[in-house]
Amino acid sequence: MAVCPAIFVALLFKAKSVRTIHNSAFRVFPACLLLPGCVAALVGCIEPWDGPPHFLHVEDIAFVPDANQGEPTSRIEEVWVYSETDVLGAFPLPADIPLSPQALGENTTLTLSAGIRANAISSTRQPYPFYEAVEVPMALEFGGRDTLEMSVGYTDWTEVVIAEDFETANRFEPAITSTADIVRTESEALVLDGTSSGLVVLDSDHQTLISSTNEQQYNLRSNGPVWLELDYACTQPFWVGLYVKDAVNAQRVPILVLNSTEGERNKIYLDLDPVVRTTPDATHYELTLDAYYDGSADSTFVVVDNFKLLRYP
Q1: For the purposes of burial, counting CB atoms within 10 Å of the CB of 78, is it exposed (0-12), middle (13-18) or buried (19 or more)?
Q2: Measured CA angle at 114 (ends 109, 120), to 5 deg
Q3: What is the CATH code of the structural domain delimited by 159-311?
Q4: 44-100 pLDDT, tens per residue?
Q5: What is the tens place of the pLDDT at every residue in 239-259?
Q6: Mean pLDDT score of the chain
Q7: For the chain, does the N or the C end have fewer beta carbons within 10 angstroms?
Q8: 94 preceded by a cis bond (ω within 30 of 0)
Q9: What is the DSSP secondary-structure string of the chain?
């Protein structure tokens, strides 16, 4: 079997935790973690073989967090598959993964990782660095088929900070120049999880929201990646970013604009690492949420929930 070029890339990245179906653990090097266009590079990694493949079917991947790690919301769109020596590819869910008994052997072990779209961009699909990978022992035969009910949690090393879930408080505070506000809503038609979510209503009299978390002073320094998870629904665009503070200055850094979902629920995995790495003098950070009325309707709204900050201590 030819070795995929992506294998070399795998060695450049930090190992991530893996759990087996028996809950033992070891470490695996995930390939192409941050390389744009990596999925395309995987094409042709597996040479053809004679005979019908053995298929492993993965319908979806459930996310099951531990207690105090927030709501079990996720947007896992694909499964990344590794043999003991090669990257076999990234497969959109639901997936039928073809496996060669000839190339892999009749008994082999696969490692499966949950894949997401970083910053909601399809070209930055990758295994999520905070989800466990799963080790699956396989007995292969030509024409065989297995189905895996797969679930993942956060890795043992993940530090999860529930920045805001709006259940008991609202840490977002508008700036003095803001004409709109973010408030807690308990409307059943709007709440995304639990009993409350954050709501912004924009119209001709409330055209500008400029807000940030108030004196939370998040420490985002990390020995690894730093990400923000967020659930939302909206009828117009809004911005998510960081308020960077050091001993002398403070700077608002909008990172990503999230477009209208036409009121449908969505989830974003936002990579904060580029901002954190380029602000070495920062003493702490706040989250920012900004919106500007776009006039697409008499009134528009943004609903947000489940702000989670994740990092490795």
Answers
A1: buried
A2: 155
A3: 2.60.120.260
A4: 355 555 679 999 999 999 999 999 999 999 999 999 999 999 999 999 999 999 999
A5: 999 999 998 889 999 999 999
A6: 87
A7: C
A8: yes
A9: -PPPTHHHHHTTS--EEEEETTS-EEEE--TTSS-TTHHHHTTT-S---SSPPEEEEEEEEEE-PPTTS--------EEEEE-SSSEEEEEESSEEEEE-HHHH-SEEEEEEEEEEEBTT-GGGEEE-TTBPEEEEEEE--TT-EEEEEEEE-B-TT-EEEEEE-SSS---EEE-TT-SS-EEEE--TTT--STT-EEEEEEETTB-EEEEEESS--B----SS-EEEEEEEEESS-EEEEEEEE-SS-EEEEEEEEE---TT--EEEEEE-HHHHHT-TT-SEEEEEEEEE---SSSEEEEEEEEEEEEE--
Report the predicted TM-score, pTM, of the whole model to 2 decimal places: 0.83
Hey, what amino acid is at 143?
A: G
Residue 244 structure tokens: 């960077």
Name the residue ranges covered by the structural domains of the chain.
Answer: 6-152, 159-311
Per DSSP, what are the bridge partners of residue 126? 116
The string of pLDDT tens digits covering residues 269-298 is 999 999 999 999 999 999 999 999 999 999
Residues 6+ apart with CB under 8 A from 168: none
* C-alpha distance across the termini of the chain, in Å: 40
Query: Which of 183, 190, 245 minimizes the C-alpha distance to 209?
Result: 183
Task: Answer whether 118's CB lies under 8 Å from 269's CB.
Answer: yes
